[in-house]
Amino acid sequence: MTATRARTAEPTAPDGRKTTYRDAMREALREALRTDERVFLMGEDVGRYGGCFGVSLGLLEAFGPERIRDAPLSESAFVGAGIGAALAGMRPIVEIMTVNFSLLALDQILNNAATLLHMSGGQLPVPIVIRMTTGAGRQLAAQHSHSLEGWYAHIPGLRVLAPATLTDARYMLAPALADPDPVLIFEHGSLYNVAGELAADAGPVDIDNAVVRRPGTDVSLITYGGSLPKALAAADNLASGGISAEVVDLRTLRPLDDVTIGESVARTHRAVVIDEGWRTGSLAAEISARLTEQHFYDLDAPIERVCSAEVPMPYARRLEEAALPQVGGVVAAAHRAVGESMPTGAGTTAGQREVRMR
User: Fold this and answer.
1) Helix (H, G, I), strand (E, B) or coil at 210
2) To which H or E segment does residue 21 belong?
3) What pairs with residue 271 in β-bridges?
């Protein structure tokens, strides 16, 4: 069994020094466990093994088996136990290995966690945090690789978060635990090894609003989670051709921050939505619909969507890459949005492009 495999804990860097997304998540867990005795972590292999992706490595030794609880292989059972603990006044953090496995607990999440506050007339809040790994790009095949955040963002009564940066990984957990409603945190598997500097003055994180990660004037690239690095890389590529792309990180998928998204499109007049979910019925479709409803007269071109291919995620590396949104696809969509005949060479300013397109 995986719980018997020996692993070595990674040192967690303090704020202001180089760290990784995984380490930032672990430090957030440490802080939550240290500062509130009601907090405990529960899930498959979170204790002796340190978590399927190593996020909880070392926490069992630090906080003991009462606070770091290895659960049996039954998502419905341990998510249900977490809901019960939340109803009893605890602050459980439940880890589900991958988003695909969360479907085994969907009855608990949808019919219990999301509805009890409403059905009890406000008497039964369920302050549970459910963390799960999402996304593809690691050759784990169809049962471990899908992006189902949009499904959960469809459900009233939930708050859905998608931390994409070191700062969000480190500081989203505290406000999530303070929320009286159930909070789902989707951690993209491709981000765990991402390293960088966590500023000494980083945090706290606002989980109510999206954030502009890169300002721009010609087109808005709207995305979240594991697609944020691709959107930023696409913006760099576009800048080399004279196109100024603004990158909006949604951060919170439910409730969506219509104001920040709309303000960005009002500035750029064009939008590309990048979503690792399937195109049909996707979060990208919801954002496109809202922009059409609320900002139709701000738009100078049809909204572009870059989504995963409508297939179960392939195992083979090249097929997986072909099925996922990639930088080249985002760049091509942005070019379509601004107009393929528009000059993109040096010497053409954003203002001149704006005049010509209008």
Assistant:
1) coil
2) helix 21-35
3) 220
Q: Which of 27, 144, 188, 335 is catalytic?
A: 144
The one-letter amino acid at 221: L
Q: How far is residue 127's CA from residue 301's CA, in Å, rounded to a whole number?
A: 42
Residue showing tokens 């608990």: 108
Tens-digit pLDDT string for the chain (358 aa): 333 333 334 444 455 679 999 999 999 999 999 999 999 999 999 999 999 999 999 999 999 999 999 999 999 999 999 999 999 999 999 999 999 999 999 999 999 999 999 999 999 999 999 999 999 888 899 989 999 999 999 999 999 999 999 999 999 999 999 999 999 999 999 999 999 999 888 888 999 999 999 999 999 999 999 999 999 999 999 999 999 999 999 999 999 999 999 999 999 999 999 999 999 999 999 999 999 999 999 999 999 999 999 999 999 999 999 999 999 999 999 999 999 644 444 333 333 333 233 3
Question: Looking at 27, 44, 75, 304, which residue is catalytic?
Answer: 75
Residue 154 among the catalytic residues: no
Q: How is residue 168 written in tokens?
A: 């969000």
- In this structure, are residues 78 and 107 in contact, taking their beta carbons and an 8 Å threshold? no
Percent helix, strand, coil in the chain, to 5, is 40, 20, 40
Residue bearing tokens 């087109």: 219
Could you confirm whether 118 is annotated as catalytic?
A: no
Cα-to-chain-centroid distance, residue 220: 19
